[in-house]
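Predict the assembly for these three chains.
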Amino acid sequence: MDIFDFYRKDRWPHVFCPGCGNGTVMNCFYRAFNELGLDLEKTAFVGGIGCSSRIPLYINSDALHTTHGRALAFATGLRLSRLDLSVVVFTGDGDLGAIGGNHFINGCRRNVDMTVICINNNIYGMTGGQASITTPHDYQSTTTPYGNREYPFDLAEIAVAAGANYVARWTTRHVHELTKAMKTALQKKGFRFVEVVSQCPTNFGRRNKMADPTQMLEWFRESSVRRDKARTAAVDHVDLNLAGQITVGEFVSRDRECYEELLGVGKHGV
Amino acid sequence: MKPVVDLKYCKGCNVCVYICPKKCYSRGAEISEMGYFATHVSLPEKCYNHNREGKLICELCVLSCPDQAISWFPETEEEKGR
Amino acid sequence: MSDAKEYFVQGNEACVEASLASGLKFFAGYPITPSTEVAEGLARRLPKAGGVFLQMEDEIACISAVIGASWGGVKAMTATSGPGFSLMQEAIGYAAMSETPVVLVNVMRGGPSTGQPTRASQGDVAQTRFGSHGDYQVIAFAPASVQEMFDLTVETFNFSEKYRVPAFLLSDAEIGHMRGLLRVPPNIEVIDRKELGVRRQDKASEVPDSLVHPFPTFGRGHKTMVTGMTHTDDSRIEPEDPVVHSELVTRLNEKITKSRKDINRWEVINEDARIMIVAYGSSSFGAREIAANDRRIGLLRLKSLWPLPEEPIADVAGKCEKMLVCEMNLGQMYPHIKRVALEAGCRTVELLPKIGGDPQTPSEVRSKLREMGVI
């Protein structure tokens, strides 16, 4: 499908900052969606509040732009009322893991059929750069001017522990791997979670000596370690500083019954 | 096929300059109509898809570009010869 | 009526029956006294009726899921009480702003906070109208019997669909848990939302499109965009534009206030009485007994609370000398009723508040009327 069959031409161009990783994620998703031959008319998109949650508003399909943190709850209701529609959720680290934390873990546990793309830029970007639950320890943000005292969540590991059927994490530096993971996710059933570590040069990079988006991409490349090769400390859940690494790869791919099957209702999956 | 940068969309972030393994792009020296130092395809013949039709490879620039500003165009006979 | 089926049920159970009769297909609930029977009843009945029942992780998830389901095109409901109702306010504002038809049953209990989980109050009636931020209007009904738990639940669904607005059934621990006679007529009038692209001749389509836009259900090729942000009629997001915002929010409010006459529901006993009591739900029990036995005392029992039924209140206020408002709170409808009544010429409007769980007894009402010098 042509790019402007996929995106709403009358909303173009998007408002994301120069160098923002959101645009990269959109490219990978568009390619994955297209290569699988999926139908926009049979897909509904849901987003919370934040820069990444705005992506559904650019796609030429039904879009539900919800309240902060609650995208998964809205998506659950939408999906279970319309089993003929596939649901894709775009959300962010704060939207999903902070205010939306409860819906995140229960969404994984409940395993309703949906694909959730969490664009983790380690910051609350849209509101100007406040610390997020994935901001690394000691890093600068507008609410951590003395360096973040807290330690970050590992969203992918939480999804694994909470029962999601598919969990993968890549960065915007790994566009091919990310596209492939999205393709895999879109074809599975149940709760499929793809975390994308992405650059926010404007509100994260700039305050942390990485104002240029290419500096952030290089930081991703240097810190990324494939999951099977990761140092033990990175998968040691006690080290919430993630041992200074970004573990990438497929975390889990299982086939727990999705919620629709457990309810005994209609179709599921793509 | 050759990569072409659409100056209507390029915001001069230079991710393509960074990501291209063959260094086909360079940082813009001139301000585009949109007001950015838009990137410049300085060495299109170095691209992996130079003289390639059908299934393209690499495409790191197209996939990475945050503004969907890069797309593939057929090359002229003259461009293919380089 | 002879065809009607008769049941002896609890108020909450009557609500369950009514929601199924209205075509409910999605319920998301969370256990909270004294509303839990609604969720439990639907857990048993809704799947058999081809619907989906979900117990969500918290009340915010409940109302959010209900709104999401409504965009799938189905009638969706949740049930809660005070503490859960407070949690739901943000999403209620979202439903108002996005014009999503949803039904919310609030079986009110003693508040504030955890308060009296098992005792009745009418402490959330103001919150129903003003609980979320910003200017918006909702529709709310107040049943006073098991039968009305059924009848008014059907009305709540119908008006929610007709006006594309969150609509509320404001019950309380007494009415939710009391048992009584329920007659279910064979034919119930059910209103479904006007759908974009579907032409029908029914109650919903009587409302002009300029007031209530046809509902663009998901998955029908409309490329619908729903948002809580300020938006234009063609779903462009324009939060910076004062004109767009003002037009949108004004329409959302006028949609309801201009339809008051269609929505107002009330009952009057002894309408020419010089002394008029205004009450609703449980707070009407004591007053009803007095009015039934003394023609000097009238009762205006409000069956709908929001939008405020100004016309029936003004009507009785214009004829009576003194008015007494009975509420199981410290005066939440009272300021609004008083405003309308004074404007209509009634010179004295007093309040008999009662909190703690029991409704105003007939002797308490009589004492107050004596104090007011009317008997």
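Chain A touches chain B at residues 3, 13-14, 16-24, 26-28, 31, 172-173, 175-176, 179, 201, 212-214, 217-218 (CB under 8 Å). Residues 38-179+186-257 of chain A form a domain with the Rossmann fold fold (CATH 3.40.50.970).
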